[in-house]
Amino acid sequence: MKQDVISIENKKVGTIDLDDTVFGLDARTDILARMVNWQLAKRRAGTHKVKARSEIKGSTRKVIRQKGSGSARRGSNKAPQLRGGGVTFGPVPRSHEHGLPKKVRKLALKTALSVKRSEGKLVVLDTAKLKEPKTAELVKRLGKLGWASTLVIDGAETDANFVRAASNIAHLDVLPSQGANVYDILRRETLVLTKDAVDRLVERLK
Prior knowledge:
34% of the residues lie in helices and 14% in strands. It is an alpha/beta fold. It is elongated, with a radius of gyration of 27 Å.
């Protein structure tokens, strides 16, 4: 399928053929959901922790005698049912990662790219480069392009000036092609790919 190629000055500079096997798939919300859950689970630190009964500081002495007091039978003050006692089955540090087949991950990325193209929110840029790392200049160009919430994916390497200028702009992310992922694609409204990024993504996913 044909896609227009524009410059950073918002001028059409040509067209490009997008591979149907990468940019022409049907939307699969189930696959996208599985991929996003997998990514977010990997990001979780898993450092939540509470003290169990054995970790509470204090005496293990039995508070009152077993019988004859008229009160409930009580052991140590570190018991879970008492205030200040240990927590039963509380959270402990662990990894939240879970497995997801490579085929599913590959299909999810192709689906995310296809969804952006079918919604008309895919833009192909000739190059994402600036002569100087000027945020004000980039903001003006983005205003002319009409990009608000945007993810820009470049080739193997990103332009240092472009990244530096974009780092001060809210809702604008810049990634190299190897960093392309489903979560970042879906969380931004507009997906911008350079011509080099298109070639590398097709090579990676075909």
